[in-house]
Design brief:
This protein is α+β, with helices and mostly antiparallel strands. The protein is 26% helix and 27% strand. Strand 3 and strand 4 form a beta hairpin.
Length: 96
Amino acid sequence: MLSAGRASLCFALLALSSVPAASAQLAAAKDGPVVYGHHHLNVTKIDEHKNFWLEGMGITLDRPYTKIAALNIAIAFISDPWGTYIELTEGLDKVS
C-alpha cells in the first residue's frame, strides 16, 4: 500500500507524463495576434544609441536622426532584424 505522499507523487508524475512538450515559436511583432505601432526608447544621448544600433548591431535607420525644434527633442526610427519598429527619442522627459 502506498503512503499518501507517494500516491500524490505518483499521480503528479502520471499527470505530467501525459502533457505534450511545450514549444514556442515567437512571431514577428507585425505578425502577432495583437498588432501595435512600435517600441519607444527615451534615451539620454541619441547619437550614442544610434551608433550602437547601426554599428554594433548592423541595423539601418528607417527614419534618420531628426531634431524637432518645437518640442526640443530628437528622434530616429530603426527596425530590428525581426521587423520590430523602434523609436529612439532624446529629450522627451524634459517636455512639459
